[in-house]
Amino acid sequence: MGNSLFANCCRHVTDLIFQPRSSSSPDERSPLLPKPPAGCAVQPETPEAARCAGPYPDIIPSEAVAGSLQKCPEYIPEAKDEGGTVTVCDKSCLRAGAAGPLQPAEASRAVAVLPADLGAGPVGLVGHAQSLEACQGCVKPEDGVSAHRSCRRQEHVAAADGGDVAPGARPASWGHGEGRAASVCPASVPKRGTPPCPGSPGTPSPVLPASAGKPPPAQGTVVLPVPRGEVSSKAWDTSSGFVVTGPAACPDGRSGWDPGSPAQALPWKQQQKKKRKKKKLSLLEHPSGVALMNGSGPHESLKGEKDARQNGHEEADPGEDGNDQEVIVIQDTGFTVKICAPGIEPFSLQVSPQEMVQEIHQVLMDREDTCHRTCFSLQLDGNVLDNFAELKTIEGLQEGSLLKVVEEPYTVREARIHVRHIRDLLKSLDPSDAFNGVDCNSLSFLSVFTEGDLGDSGKRKKKGTEMEQIDCTPPEHILPGSKERPLCALQPQNRDWKPLQCLKVLTMSGWNPPPGNRKMHGDLMYLYVITVEDRHVSITASTRGFYLNQSTAYNFNPKPANPSFLSHSLVELLNQISPTFKKNFSALQKKRVQRHPFERIATPFQVYSWTAPQAEHAMDCVRAEDAYTSRLGYEEHIPGQTRDWNEELQTTRELPRKNLPERLLRERAIFKVHSDFTAAATRGAMAVIDGNVMAINPSEETKMQMFIWNNIFFSLGFDVRDHYKDFGGDVAAYVAPTNDLNGVRTYNAVDVEGLYTLGTVVVDYRGYRVTAQSIIPGILEREQEQSVIYGSIDFGKTVVSHPKYLELLEKTSRPLKIQKHKVLNDKNEEVELCSSVECKGIIGNDGRHYILDLLRTFPPDLNFLPVEGEEMPEECKKMGFPKQHRHKLCCLRQELVDAFVEHRYLLFMKLAALQLMQQKANKQESSGALENGASPENGAAESEKAESEEGKIDDNVTGLDQVKELAETIASDDGTVDPKSREVIRNACKAVGSISDTSFDIRFNPDIFSPGVRFPESSKEEVQDQKQLLKDAAAFLLSCQIPGLVKDCLDHTVLPMDGATLAEAMHQRGINMRYLGKVINFITKTPGRAQLDHIFKIGISELITRSAKHIFKTYLQGVELSGLSAAISHFLNCFLSSFPNPIAHLPADELVSKKKNKKRKNRNLGNADNTAWASMTPQELWKNICSEAKSYFDFSLECENADQAAEVYNLQKITLLREISLKTGVQILLKEYNFDNRHKPTFTEEDILNIFPVVKHVNPKASDAFHFFQSGQAKVQQGFLKEGCELINEALNLFNNVYGAMHVEICACLRLLARLNYIMGDYSEALSNQQKAVLMSERVLGIEHPNTIQEYMHLALYCFANSQLSTALNLLYRARYLMLLVFGEDHPEMALLDNNIGLVLHGVMEYDLSLRFLENALAISSKYHGSKSLKVALSHHLVARVYESKAEFRSALQHEKEGYTIYKNQLGEHHEKTKESSEYLKYLTQQAVALQRTMNEIYKNGSNANIMPLKFTAPSMASVLEQLNIINGILFIPLSQKDLENLKAEVQRRQQLQESIKSGEQLEPEDKAVEEKEAEPSMPSAEIPVTQSSA
Fold first, then answer.
1. 1411 close to 1455: Cβ distance less than 8 angstroms
2. What are the pLDDT digits (tens) for 197-228?
3. How far apart are CA 1047 and CA 753, in angstroms?
4. What are the C-alpha distances in Å from 903 to residues 991, 1042, 1565?
């Protein structure tokens, strides 16, 4: 699909990416904020519109950064909405949901009003740093609804760039597919014709609050101080939305905001006070942006990016100290040019001075009326414009200039590009690429349910308010209690997919290439076309264009036919010879440009679909050509043939990163090269397994072969040359690549300059694991022994070290908690290392220092590594550990290490505080001596906050404050500290296992317990301590992390819906999947077992499918290619079908050669005989699954076949099918499968359509965008919605800049924006943003991913608010169907969904249907939240309302009474909710009495009775919407002016309190809750209903 693009991108990609430009000369300044969109300053007519986003403050020097803004008087009151209402969003929209990529778990109760609540959800703002790892799929950005233009946008850092593309434009740039433009840095542009309104993502969002009393600078200028310290200081002070850079600029020494502390905007006086104390680096500082609440720490990605201060030392980058603060000024207004193309009226186009001529080309190739041209130049006054020139460098190009489109002569390359582009246009609506998982296409079904684009339909069909036209009946299978789970509804047939046929065949002719004499006539190539009218024609592509020749299928006659219809474009020629083509082609292009751009943009990483309909295979010349010309990578666009991946990956890392534009450019280049590398590596790995690549050591046994293809090195996951003999052989060799990948991910995140890792991708395909790596220059010419200058190639027998490597690795040791240690080599010499022994350092021929084999970056997991003579802690022994695992490479996860260190830090603070308190009690002396302004020399300021399950803090705050000051003072080596206090710190350090005795610093030695590694005598004691630390960490996982996870599930702060989201929740807490059995066991023993039913069920199905996957892997290795579909269908029959003895169909005999060649035997990677798989039976498979579950997960399954499993554990077979297909990459035919038929097997070989690779790779991050996003979230949490919105908009622009238009993080951004738009009352904007979020989630995560289900629910709410009722219902029905398929009905989230459906149905007066859903929701809520919870009370009330509308007052009274009782018991008689409920009860009673009276009257007087009119109220839309808001956790609280004043005072008071506490200690969730309760009575709106949704 995306091949349309690579038009004129013939320069070397690396040129494109890597021309660093200076941003010094005034006209070269890089923009940082988006330019105003069409509606703003860009149009000369409306200059004042430029100020729509509020005046920008002047340049602010670094000193003032934190101070001056704070004086801004209108700062706090900002929280007030126009109508005097404060709005609160308490179901944080970035719900941890399922795999919510950015995960602030349950965001506070009622945020705007109770900011201190912020951390109250048990997981508070859990690290949104959670690297969106799980969401392996990714995407590319755009702004308004832009499609984007190709090519390297060096300067244009801002995403929205006035110029833009036709609404249907196919974004050119982000090419992944083979034929795509290798343009590297796209920028995006808003859609033509829809000037965004001032709040839309297109508008410049000022990042800074207007600073009081300064004149706004020249129009269109935006000023933003940018951080200078790279490592630690890259954090934003949320109180001002400013970049704060390290302690100097940030008066209170905090580097950035700390998600654990609710309110950041320090009261001004305090700021001043802190300024005076800023010399002291505080011991308790929390790392910028790293939130770890009991261990749900940020993912791999985070470390170095956010805090080099992790365990303590503040390190600023020495090279960057000089320039105190760079300021980037952008002056960039777009202008309009006229385009004159042959054959159509001239039209005007909005462009930006920053963009390149190339991008105008892309726009023209995408516009409906010019899309058929590819070979043309643009001319201004007769001068041809250079494609790669930026518009601002072109003389004479200004507002209103006329650009002529001039047709150029073709070359062979241009002719091929043209044919390819036409084929893309013909295929543009065809979904087969998405089903086949090629070219980064993926599916989206939203438009099927919204009947087109939501925005237009809102204006187009206003029939939402006329009730009659809505058909509300859901399909049978969606109704509560329905047992059928159809599969076909998963991928409904889209009307546009039966594309209009324009041609029967368009293919290369067999007469190619032209013979010499025809070449000299200008013939370039020949095409063969069969039109719909069945006319067969041969076409010549010549330098002058396309014409008909006289050749036939069997006769070559290149002379022009008569008439020859010479046309410059193939489309014009076909229009003349085929009327049907003419009609259908223009209709097709109309449809193409109407689609939402997000349905067409390529995703950054391929997403595969596990089901697909039967597709007819059509003839396609371009596809055929692609498949057979081994186009290694991207040769068409790159002179110099294949790409040097290593050079590209490393050069992008070396790009400068001193200021924001440079970092954006760098991150964009890293991301782009990375996604290209992943795509190429995946293709190569498949080619290797399919046997299409020649090995570099062909004579060796198949398992040992290695391959090089497209400059990528491939190796198989087998134990070659007994390398892993001591670690578990092949099993160890299989897990080593993923461990290595995690290591690469971590070192990449730390991002130390001068230390390089290899591009690494791990691909599982057809039962084999392939590792793809970029190649170190020169490595192939040398023996490994010579090249390794650091580390060991034989697991610790010979070890070498190197000072440069030690220096580089030393920089990573703090964030990665790795201890520098000595080991003995084979000559008994001590060698110093700062990593595990098998981490190797190699200096490439390019002089770069590479590290590889990072499989043991993290310390070993002792629970799975029994060691002779080592005693494990009690907690471990109780749970049956240590346990022998299959391999000895079990490591703790990085999240666990971080959580453990946090936990220890808390302990350290407590111990020290207790001792100090005792001393104080003994001496009662003042702590004046500690007040000396100690200068932070070695700056071991501790930067960890900790929240742990155990240990409440009972000492007062002053004790902690003292410890903090004391630790700072000691750390700065000030002689004034009295020895007793030193002793306190030393004791505390010793008690928690710190490696330093003057400050808290915990590190791990990754070589402990490593077979073959020996330590010198001198470090015996240190090794002993390290062993103890590892045992403690193993115990911590069992005693804190697993119970913590289960507790979060009980509180519904974690709501997994399927295996992937459960795995993600475990990983965020540092729990490996091998503990799954333990987690399930723990659940069975938990008191609230019934409330964990959903987790238990997901756990069991995950356990079964993972065990089945292990078996499937080895099963597949014994299958040859011709038997694949038969083997897979046989396996699925044994796994899921009720048919007792399925028979495998061996490949048909007539295909098996009679003379079997014995020598060919070893080509097959498996060593089993090739038909052994056919003998598997269901009994045997399930026996193996049970034994696998026992041996791997230590869990005893009680089932002998699929039916028993489904019955005992209440599982759905369709769900198991989805899970196993996703895990193994199998794609099956979309049809209804009967699993329970005992007479014939469920699957046949025709049902298996494809097998895809399962790909693991690194996800590069957009760090600056991420900080903006977090600051925006923090603002929203504090109730400053407007500033929050601006920051989030800013983040969106930066994300778009780095990732392109599609990415999970952008999806999260859009979701939050939509939520904010909705709360602030802008329903249509909310709808537009949420529509993008849904499309993106479908495209990037998958159409039935739990996140997508959530997005559908949000979208339905906004549709309802926009009075598109039928659409809202359709979306809710879709969400319910997906949820039934993915999990089933019995899930807490289903209650929320059913409440939504019930309310909407109530609103359209479908009372009986409404009751079915609401009563189901009531049952589920009672089960999962307990029958006494407020959620259940609300549910009762909703049911009562429907009964009231049906005039069944008795039932209504019964339900409302239940609700009233719950409110009274939970909230007390005087709570507002209780009063409301009792009022409603009175009203119902009156109505019931009136009805009874009327009935009696009728009985008595017969038909002439005098009947009083009864009030039967059809619910108003407003009341339904209000209830919808309540159940979805959105509360609007009306406040008077006086309330607001109280609120402000309260907020400030809390902030001071928080500040003092936070500076000393992070309170635990329980304590926070207590504190809130105390504060509650003074709050003006203490009666906020606590009925959040299940957020």
1. no
2. 333 333 333 333 333 333 333 333 333 333 33
3. 41
4. 13, 14, 14
